[in-house]
Amino acid sequence: MVDWGNDEVLPGQIWIFVDLRDIPDDLIYEPGIYAVMESTCRRTAQNETSLSQIFVPYLKETLPKKEGKVQRKFYFVDVESFHATACLIPDHGNPSDRAYLQVTPRSEWASQFSAWLETEHEREFPRT
């Protein structure tokens, strides 16, 4: 999860790390460690967000198509902007090959389950 600086924390796919700690002072980049990565945008369509309570749908950002092919969009990101870890898996049921599902962090499962127990359900569940 990356803090992209616009009050938005979104997952991204890291491709490579670049160590620029020993670069000359007269370059445009600050010395540090960076990652070359792709970013995502959160899907908000009701038909995707309502499918699951443990997966959050995302779509990888891309550049406009060139010669009919999707062009990947890469960012050069300072690792200091990393916010947390994330687990995303390809959404194989989605027609877009850029669609991914973020697995809700395990630390949130118990509270999600408790919230689910407190909601009204169409079906009665026996209490034991």
Brief overview:
Helix content is 11%, strand content 38%. With 128 residues, it is mainly beta. The strands form three sheets. Strands 3, 4, 5, 8, 9 and 10 form a six-stranded antiparallel beta sheet that branches. Strands 1-2 form a two-stranded antiparallel sheet. A two-stranded antiparallel ribbon has the order 6-7.
Q: Which stretches are poorly predicted, pLDDT < 50 over at least 5 residues?
A: none
Number of strands: 10
How far apart the termini lie comes to: 40 Å
Radius of gyration: 19 Å
Order of helices and strands: EEEEHEEEEEEH
Based on Cα principal axes, name the global outline. Answer: flat
Structural class: mainly beta
- Oligomeric assembly: single chain
Largest sheet: 6 strands, antiparallel
Query: What is the overall number of helices?
Result: 2
Average pLDDT for all residues: 85
Percentage of β-strand residues? 35-45%
Fraction of residues in helix: 10-25%
